[in-house]
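Design request, tokens follow.
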């Protein structure tokens, strides 16, 4: 066996493959385990199979960039979370009207009641179209034929039939609502105005909502800054945020005239039109936010 003093002192001396192994095994008998780990590494030359003993170099230390990434990760892990809700609200004038008009007729037979009702409703539709209502803005909302009973003397006797036909108008011409009502009653023969409702169109609602999102986020951040300051903390950034979208409820349809009070008005009696006021509608947006604070 080769001794470590005569054979293994020169780290860069070329050795045969078998001699190298013998040298390492011999060194193991005299050197400590720690010395062996740091003494040399064996690198095999692919061309001739020779091995070289080279000095061990310690691995490089982590770079500053890696350290910053680790430090940032640790900071995020140790941060506190502050949750709040930001809101933004505005009032908007509706740009869509939903008007419901009806015709009710009664006669001794269902056929006669239906014939009269159909003639009147066609007249209502014609005068409304002449007043600016578009055909694709109208639709039937309700229709019924029902018998009328006389319950006298303990018997149910059919005395006639009532036909009810209602149409619905959905239009963006909200300023024409009052004129349409007056025209339908005075010129068309409508017997009831069942409801009037004002809403926002989908397009306008989306435009208003988009403008409120940024305001809601700013509101949430302002609340977070105030709360963090009161706790002796500082907002570092956003962890997560959720947009809460709510469908805006329309103005509840309001019955404005009952059939008992409606009779065809004399010609020229609509100079002072029915007052119809659309008012304003609230539109709100809110965001739920989780902030990183330290």
């Amino acid at each position: 066996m080769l001794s470590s003093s005569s054979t293994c002192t020169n780290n860069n001396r070329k050795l045969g493959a078998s001699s190298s192994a013998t040298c390492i095994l011999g060194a193991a008998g005299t050197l400590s385990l720690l010395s062996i780990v740091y003494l040399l590494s064996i690198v095999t030359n692919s061309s001739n199979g020779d091995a070289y003993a080279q000095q061990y170099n310690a691995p490089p230390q982590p770079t500053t960039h890696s350290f910053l990434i680790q430090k940032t990760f640790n900071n995020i892990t140790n941060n506190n979370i502050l949750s709040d809700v930001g809101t933004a609200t505005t009032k908007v004038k509706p740009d869509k009207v939903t008007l419901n008009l009806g015709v009710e007729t009664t006669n001794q037979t269902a056929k006669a009641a239906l014939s009269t009702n159909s003639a009147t409703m066609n007249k209502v539709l014609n005068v409304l179209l002449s007043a600016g209502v578009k055909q694709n803005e109208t639709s039937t909302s309700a229709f019924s034929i029902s018998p009328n009973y006389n319950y006298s003397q303990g018997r149910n006797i059919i005395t006639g039939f009532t036909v009810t036909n209602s149409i619905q108008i959905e239009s963006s011409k909200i300023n024409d609502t009052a004129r349409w009502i007056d025209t339908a009653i005075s010129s068309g023969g409508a017997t009831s105005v069942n409801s009037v409702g004002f809403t926002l169109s989908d397009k306008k609602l989306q435009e208003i909502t988009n403008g409120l999102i940024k305001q809601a986020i700013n509101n949430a951040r302002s609340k977070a800054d105030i709360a963090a300051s009161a706790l002796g903390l500082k907002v570092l950034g956003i962890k997560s945020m959720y947009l809460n979208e709510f469908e805006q409820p329309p103005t509840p349809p309001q019955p404005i005239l009952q059939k008992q009070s409606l009779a065809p008005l004399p010609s020229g009696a609509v100079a002072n039109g029915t007052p119809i006021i659309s008012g304003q509608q609230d539109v709100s947006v809110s965001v739920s936010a989780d902030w990183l604070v330290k």
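Comment from the thread starter after seeing the answer: thanks! Residues 202-230 form the longest helix (29 residues).
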